[in-house]
Protein 1
Amino acid sequence: MVAVPAGRVTLSDRRTQRSWAVEVASFRMSAFPVTQEWYAQITDECPSTAPGDRLPVEGVSWWDAIRFCNALSRREGLTPAYEVRPGAGSADWDTSADGYRLPTEAEWEHACRAGSTGPRYGPLDEIAWYRGNADDRVHPVGGRLPNAWGLYDMLGNVWDWCWDLYDAEVYGTYRVLRGGGWSDEHWSCRASVRRRSHPTFRIDDVGFRVARSAPGEE
């Protein structure tokens, strides 16, 4: 887990042409997307299309991701962050919990940028697997250069599920995806790009990474 300092990030949405600033408290984030090996150790499941221990787990829904977070928290004796209510089609986040969780999209973008201000934290071919260099497949985590804070694969390889609803009034329960994937064109692999999908959606270029609130932060 990498320590991410507190800061301020401005999010933007091309569809609505709006932007908004968010203060981000310090937190911790996994240096890599959750791998298939790690996912299998915690869940005894191997949902991915392309098998490989060091490949990012993919073919996982938003629900799968938050269940993994809770299972990992229990494994390590931490308080689970989520109360899952499948019958109601929703989950509640206990912000006081010390367990693992998905990053918010503000946390994700702040962590991705790592203090940089451009569309990416480095030259795309050096930091990301995307359509231009991925040879139509997912790649082992950590195969490209990290950002300034030591986070790998923030752009490309697989999209990351975030906690947030995308736009509840228009899209209901759809959740935010960030980062771009191995099959995406270069314009999708930018720090500011937002994508949305239903929380039950599973596909071979969507995975996730985990976060934890810093001690004393809610």
Note: The mean pLDDT is 95.
Protein 2
Amino acid sequence: MLRTHARVEAALTLRHGEQLLLTLIIPLALLIGLSLLDVLPASQLGTTSKVDWITPRILALAVLSSAFTGQAIALGFDRRYGVLKRLSATALPSWLLVAGRVVAALVVVALQSVVLGVVAAFLGWSPSAAGLGAAILLLVLGTLAFGALGVLLGGALRAEAVLALANVVWFVLLLAGGILLAPSALPSGVGAVVELLPSGALAEGMRAALVGGQFPVGPMLVLAGWAAVAGVLATRTTKLT
């Protein structure tokens, strides 16, 4: 049942044009553009090449796009059209409704990572082999954290409000949440706060793993904390209609 439900949810996401634009086309465009153009400030890059610096952050953006924004919007409109109410009347238990969406999000993130990784490799990306295991764990934790936040948002508000708010949060986290601008490039107080956001923790953790070959425990704990808190709140606030 879990496999079937997850396969349906993943297929619906992958064949939805707007979802595909958000989850794959925009991250690909940013990856290629920022790797080829002289846009990134040299103070952020240091001795790291542009593609090596930007790829971990684009992978974090892909997780944000699919697990949070896409998940929240899809859930909001599923509630509006009565999809969840009808599914709850089937043999699917309530925990499996959520688990199927989480597994589908993990599948989508895995596909995103493969596509983005292949394109980055053609652009000259050379990740640290020592950090690949940590990067995979970060992607899983990031998907769980952003997925829980997506369910929290999409399960509590009206579909129109979810659509607007999810896109606003996406833009804010992209520009000021530690993805395109490293926390070190921000004022010290702001940078410290950004590192505690799931976007900042995931982007910095991916950079530490794939560029420095490290095992970033701090960002992992931040993501696990967000996943736990948002998951508990989502179970209490999510509505079927």
Note: Residues 1-237 form one domain.
Protein 3
Amino acid sequence: MNLPNRITLARIFMIPLMLVFLLVDIEAAWWSYAIEIGDYSLPLNQLIAALIFIIAASTDGIDGYIARKHNLVTNLGKLLDPLADKLLVASVLIALAAMGKCDAWIAIVIIAREFAVTGLREVALLEGSVIAASNWGKAKTITQIVAISALLLNNFPFVWLNVPFDVILIWLAALITIYSGIDYFVKNKSVLNFSKM
């Protein structure tokens, strides 16, 4: 297995570790410790989960860059990379919704869009074509990662400015996600030839 695929697998294996820190209630003194600065408070376990998420999200660009630069693109990598991205975003959004930090409908919309576009790409592959990532798709990914990071960090440092940056950005991520999904289907409607179905 080559290096890019190992990095992608590492991203997948970071997901359950992140979820343990986010969702499992462990009776330990350090687990319940919180960083407090004035009105700002961030539980240590949530900070660790946020750091794991940020590291995992940052590996997405790294594995792709290495694969393209050193001609290490494989079919396994083409399958694992988008799967890892979707698992990472979906799992943390579900966790945030369970924690009451994100509206459940936002998590549902974002996850549903990922399933729909993945389905469209699969149909395109069966037809012998590849749907490349669009600029809106890339903007969607970046916005989602920044929004999720802000939610995990309890709106740091914008909490001191009384700006709900995390809420604004997750709404923006949802809107861009919806638009980018529609954009994929409109630009690739020829893939969905219903007369053949």
Note: The CA atoms of residues 31 and 45 lie 6 Å apart.
Protein 4
Amino acid sequence: MEKLSILWALVRRDYALQYAGSFLGISWMFLQNLVLISLYALVFLVLNLKEPSTQEDFTAYLLTGLLFWIPIQELLVRGTGILTDNRSLLKRSSLGINLFLWIPYVQFLIHSFVTSIPVFLYLAYSGKLRFSGVVFGYLVLVSSGLYLMLLLHYLSRLNILLKDISPLIRLVSQLIFWGIPVLYYPTGYLKQWNEWNPFTIPLDVFRTSVIFGFQAQFDWFHILPFLFFFFLVYLLAKRKFQSVILDHL
């Protein structure tokens, strides 16, 4: 419990540093997420870039894809730079590296929960929400964050060694975003390609959980090689990087 209270204090401190002097404070984060979802909805739904017969189904498909990806992308970018951003505090305290790595994960849980409220309300209003799958759907988001954390243990340490790889991670996150079926239905060669994207299966499981009548698009066992690889990367970061990182802080 003591570590949890310390972690929560660090999360609040991180928020305060990120939004110091901001008029709306942390509300900017949630406003930004809602505006981003609204912009994509404007382009792909209001401007009617889909056939009218698929419009209703595509609305749920688009919104759940964005709900899944936006917090994941935030976790990827923030988690990569969390150690370098707290370098001075890490040097002065004995809290250890691992505790700081959980700061962006707690923020990920908060952001995904708050962002999911208007999305789930809309899906419920349109009759597309699978009420029995809401809790499981959020657990899928929680598990997806833990899945990414395996990789972030490595990337956050690598970020210290290479000074700053955050711009590269932002670029990669954009490539991943357009590579997974957030804004489109996967068909043909694109569907085959998506089977080997590490985030496609968690997204597919999430959609299957929360969208009423949605059929899984992929075989879920394809995530196993990525899960095994991410776990190996996690072990490498814990065993080989730890002493090196402490010397470079």
Note: The CA atoms of residues 8 and 146 lie 18 Å apart.
